[in-house]
Amino acid sequence: MSLIEVQNLVKKYKISQKQHGILGYIKHLFHPIYKEHIAVNNICFNINEGELVGYIGENGAGKSTTIKMLTGLLTPTSGKVIVNGIIPSEKRIQNNKQIGAVFGQKTQL
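Above: the chain sequence. Below: its structure as tokens.
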């Protein structure tokens, strides 16, 4: 069994599209328009106990978003994440007792 199992992981965000000017602001107030942004698109991987893994990619590729889903800070839009037999978004405290993560030179967990 894998220590970390990720299957078909997807994370989508809704970003509001604001229009210019006062009239655009008023329109947006009553009828907001949203654009969908896909941060993580259908990734799959397994990491077994004792493996060393590097997670690299371009800026905006979804690396931090994926790590946040593995730690339970974000809930996936779809797909499956299991870390040491725990679904992180459902049992975040139990998951966080077993892991550590650093974002931007600051300890988050």
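The longest strand covers residues 34-47.
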